[in-house]
Structures are given as structure tokens and as C-alpha cells.
Amino acid sequence: MGSARKNSSADRRARIEEMRRAEQARERRNRLLTIGISTVIVVGLVGFGSYLFINEQNKQDKEDAKVEAAKNADIAGLQEFDAKKLGRNHVTTPVTYPQTPPVGGDHDQAWMNCNGDVYEKAIPDKHAVHSLEHGAVWVTYNKQAKDADIKALQEKVKATPYSLMSPVEGQKGALMLTAWGKQVTVDSAKDKRVESFFAKYVQGEQTPEPGAACTNGIAQ
């Protein structure tokens, strides 16, 4: 009898121990499964983050290459003026310029705001020329310009620091781009010369006063 009870007790302990081992094994499997899933998630997130970074870097590289290509492209029809012959004095008297719009010369001590500013009405040449001296590109148009081109160039200017835009009725071309000592007439807003002109001459090497302000000037 005593021997039977001992055997029964031993069997219970064995079954309990077996159950404990099984439970411990399940816990180990669950921990490994959790670790595995977490690892997969982390690796996936890292991989996705790396993909986004590389993708963004590729986009930036393509954009930089596009800008560099535009900067190096020849601009057909570009007129260039001798910078040494363009006055840079600040004057209070009226100035008569030989070009319309002017490409440089003596000017008022105040500049037109040119931080992507679009003016609906004509602006004084003497203030706009000062903006050119600071490295701005001046986009101008007359009544022959198409509304779609005007709108597209307005958006281009608004997105570009050191640029400004205004109507100039006396100019020969419907759409013209001007920097200090540089000027070109373009056919449309989609003309490739637009990108090249902006890439070369917004704060370009022709700028007499690079880095000078394009804000806190004259606003229409």
C-alpha cells in the first residue's frame, strides 16, 4: 500500500515536471518568435528608411545634375554687355537707359524687393537695376505675352529667391530675362533657355554685389 502511494506521488511529480518543461519550452518558443518578429520589423523599417534615403538622394542628385546641365548650356540669342561700361553710382536724378529693360547702370540707392516678388504693374527702372546689381534675375513681359506663359513664369519667380517679375510695355520681345549685363528674349515659359538663364545668373558670376539683400527694399 505504502509502495503504491509512493509510486503515485512519483508519477504526479513526473507529470508536473513534464508539464513545467513543456511550459518552459513554449515560453522559449514564444520569446524566440517575438524576437524574430521584432527583428524582422526593425530590419524592415531600417530597410525602408534606407530605401527612402537613397531614393531621396537619387532625386537630389538628378536635380543637381539637371541644374548643372542647365548652367553649362549655351543660351542662344544671349546679349552680353561690357560690365566695365555699366555705371554703378547711386543717383537721385532720372536715368535714361539704352536698353529696355535696362541691364545695368547708375541707379537709385533703394532696390526693388526681389525675393521672388511678382509685380502686377510696371516698376521704376532705377530700382530694378539696383536689384540686378544684387544678383537678381528680372523677368519682364509685354502685351504680346500669352497668359499661360505669364502665369508659369510668375510661379517660377515666386519659387526663386533673387528674382522679380513685372510688365515692361516698351520692350521688343514678349518675354525677356535680364541680369546684370545679360539679356535674352525667350519664346515661352517652357523655353529651355529660361532654366539655363536662372541657373547661370541668379547670384551668378556677373553679380557686382553677391549676397546683398533682396528684401527690405521698395515694394509696389
UniProtKB/TrEMBL annotation:
Keyword Transmembrane in record: yes
Domain of life: Bacteria
InterPro entries cross-referenced by the UniProt entry: DUF3105
Keywords: Membrane, Transmembrane, Transmembrane helix
Any Pfam family the entry gives: DUF3105
TM segment ranges: 32-54
UniProt KW Membrane keyword: yes
Name the record gives this protein: DUF3105 domain-containing protein
Natural source organism: Streptomyces indicus
